[in-house]
Design brief:
This protein has 287 residues and is an alpha/beta fold. A hairpin with a 2-residue loop joins β1 and β2. α2 packs across α12 and α7 packs across α8. The termini are far apart. The relative contact order is 0.15.
């Protein structure tokens, strides 16, 4: 994967322009942002759906599945990771971006702060408003990070496929299940590298309950098109949260993706791609 050196450390990313040697897609650039302890592969099926029409860029943020530890001085709070995303957009000189977020709430922290490169915002089943940390999974991770050795012990459960499939673990984030080979890819850095665990622990320990409530006040002034695409079968991110999020965005629209839990791009990438295409063509605003 290509790499770029940012202020916090080295970030890996994929870029369909690099893969094909062609220029930007005719309809613009899409940047896909993953969630906690996932990497860019959570978007693989959606990238395959979009790459013919868009330049698609997927950074691997320091949220647990990254392979390069961040510098000890790096700000790995939620806002710090959002600022790193903004720096990534600037360094690659990505403009008029359609920014798409899943699971984590990172993208919500840029409007009103560092949003000059964002033309459109898409939020798919993610942390928002008062649902932070989200669900039993989020609360368990936060609690484990605050007990010496707790995070290391909790992560050992991801070595056991049955435990991973439980509703209180990754099984509760998907409607269709996740191949265990994919889970092994995501969690290998955390299970084998103490510095990566340190980065995740720093992120978790910086959690502030009102992070996304404060971000919501800025979203009220985000005057660009926004789509909230929620998994219809999401058990961790309540649909009511998605509806409230769409209502506070001045140009927001809410849709539900059938057959999808929290991991919308894995559960139903075709339906999500369809909604993204409509959104980027302005069909939802043109009636």
């Amino acid at each position: 994967m290509p790499e770029i050196e940012l202020s916090a450390g080295t970030i890996e990313y994929s870029d369909t322009r690099t893969d094909t040697g062609t220029g930007d897609g005719p309809d613009g650039t899409v940047v896909l942002v993953h969630g906690l302890a996932f990497d860019g592969s959570v978007w693989d099926a959606l990238v395959a759906e979009l790459r013919e029409d868009f330049r698609v860029v997927v950074p691997v943020l320091p949220l647990g599945s990254h392979r390069h530890p961040m510098r000890p001085s790096a700000d790995l709070s939620a806002q710090g990771v959002a600022d790193l995303l903004a720096e990534f957009l600037e360094r690659l000189d990505l403009r008029a971006v359609t920014l798409v977020q899943n699971d984590a709430g990172t993208a919500q922290l840029l409007p009103g702060v560092r949003d000059e490169r964002i033309a459109r915002l898409v939020l798919t089943s993610c942390e928002a408003l008062d649902n932070y940390p989200p669900g039993v999974q989020g609360r368990t991770l936060l609690a484990a990070s605050r007990v010496p050795g707790g995070l290391f012990l909790l992560l050992q459960s991801f070595r056991v496929p049955f435990l991973v499939s439980m509703r209180s673990s990754l099984g509760g984030m998907t409607a269709r299940g996740i191949p265990y080979e994919r889970v092994r890819r995501w969690y290998r850095p955390l299970l084998t590298d103490r510095a990566i665990r340190r980065d995740l622990a720093r992120f978790l320990r910086s959690t502030q309950k009102d992070t996304y409530l404060r971000a919501a006040e800025r979203l009220r002034h985000f005057d660009r098109p926004a789509l909230v695409a929620w998994g219809a079968e999401d058990r961790m991110m309540p649909s009511e949260t998605g509806r409230r999020l769409a209502e506070l965005l001045p140009r927001g629209r809410y849709v539900e993706i059938p057959g999808a839990g929290t991991l919308v791009p894995m559960d139903n990438p075709s339906a999500l791609a369809h909604e993204l295409r409509r959104f980027m063509k302005g069909e939802e605003e043109n009636g």
